[in-house]
Every structure is written in C-alpha cells, then in structure tokens.
Fold this sequence. Notes:
Blueprint: H1 4-10, H2 24-28, H3 35-62, H4 64-67, H5 85-106, H6 108-126, H7 134-153, H8 160-185, H9 189-192, H10 201-225, H11 237-252, H12 256-259, H13 267-284, H14 290-294
Amino acid sequence: MINFKAVISVIRVKQWYKNFIIFIGLIFGLELISLDGIFITILGFISLCLISGASYIRNDLSDINNDKNHPEKKNRPFPADLISIKQGYVFFLSFLITGLILGFFLDFYFGLIVLALYANTELYSKFSKNIIFLDVFSIGINFILRAISGILLIDTKMSPWIIFGVFFVALLLGFMKRKGELLLLTESAKHHRIVLKKYTLNSLNFLVNMSAMLVAATYSIYTIFGPFHDGKLVITIPIIIFIILRQLHLSKINDILIQKNEFFKDKFTLIAIFIYLIFIMVLLYSDVSVFNILN
Length: 295
C-alpha cells in the first residue's frame, strides 16, 4: 500500500519554490506576454520539479542513518518506515527518467542543464556538502542552473546581473539555513552534518550579513545599470531591502521557517513579494515610468 502523504513529503513539494527561478528569464526578458513562452516555461518548471523530487528521494535514501539521529528528520518517511527502500528507488527512477525525458524533449540544451542540475545535486550529496563554503556554493550553482535553463528555453538574452543576483540570494538562504541548523542542533550538530563542525556562529553571522549586502548591492546596480536604462525599476529597491531585512530578522531569532528554508511562509515576506511582483508587472509591461510615479 502506497502512503501518498508520505510520498508528497519525501519529494519535498514545499521546496519546489526554488524552481520558480526558471520564470526569471521570462519576466525580465519581457516574454511574459508570449503564450508560447509561458507554456514552454511551465513545462520546463515541471521537468525541474520532477528532477528535484528525484534528488530529494535519492538524498533521503542515502541519509537514512543520519536522519534517524536528527530531532526532526527522524520523522521523515524513510527513517520512520512510512515508505520502504524498494518503493523509494521505484519513485526515484520514475521521477528522474520522466524529468530527463521531458527536459530533452523541450530543448536539447535545456535537457543538458537539467542533467547537470541532477549531477551537481548528487555531487553535493556525496561530496560538496561536507566541505565548508563549497556546500553552500554548490547550492548556489543549482540556483544559477535553474535561472539559465529558463533563459535558454525562451531563447532570450542572458543578463549577468540575473546570474549574480540569483547566486547571492542562494548564498544568503544557504548560510541562514546553516546558522539555523547550528543553533538548533547545538552540540549534536557535527554528528548530523559534518560541515557544521567547521562553521562557527560568528562566521555564519558574517556570511549571512555579507550575502545580504551583496544581494542588495547587486539588485540596486541592476536597476540602474542593467538592461532597463530608464531606471524604471529603481522604485522597487526599498521592497527588496525590506525582504532582505525581514530574512535577517528571522535568522536573528532563529525562526523555524529559516531552519527549514520555508521563508515564503512568513506572511510579511509573502506580502512584500506579492507587492514587488505587481510593481514589476506594471513597470516592465506598461508605459508607466518611475519618474511619472514620483511626479
């Protein structure tokens, strides 16, 4: 008997929000008015989600013993015996093969990026996650691959600002999560994740703050010197700064949402993101100018 609730849990549907990065190229490439672009990007999003699901299953299968010693992860489907190991491998292969077939069907180069995404995730699971800094950098590379995949699908120009911005956001989220894990697990942290014995709370505080400044600086420069030379996106800088400060606050109090990388559940963050998207749609897809708004 298949426990579908456990399957939904093991493929981490809540973490699929990361795959929305694929829509960045569609939005900032001014292709959101193209029905073909929207359709193919949605299919690309599904392909990324299938690969993500496969990666999470594979990761949980390899981490069963470690997860049994974690105060929260011991309740995951595999450590709790809600899904058998045999069923896990069946689901893993089904998600992986379907995701790759869909990816290569959409575009050969998109398929290669999807394959690279899975390969880098496997490399992280086996190697990168145990090396200080490289663990979070590896996560950042996956974010970049998602962004590039969307740009390739709709064949639009690739902005280096998008690549840098996405990477720095990934660093911010990654270092905040490491900090949350260190605070949550305290002395047992090194037994759960090897790399945590190499980080210190002071170093993580510095890395979190540095990443936040890089995100703010990169976005600000993008709005001024990026492809939209009329400066129409400058007005959105305060919204981005608010979102960043909100994440720093949640990290400071070690909120459970930061520990689980589920910042999007924070209502203030969600409202700010919604307002930001409205501004982006109005500023990029209409004749409205920031100078008209300010005047």
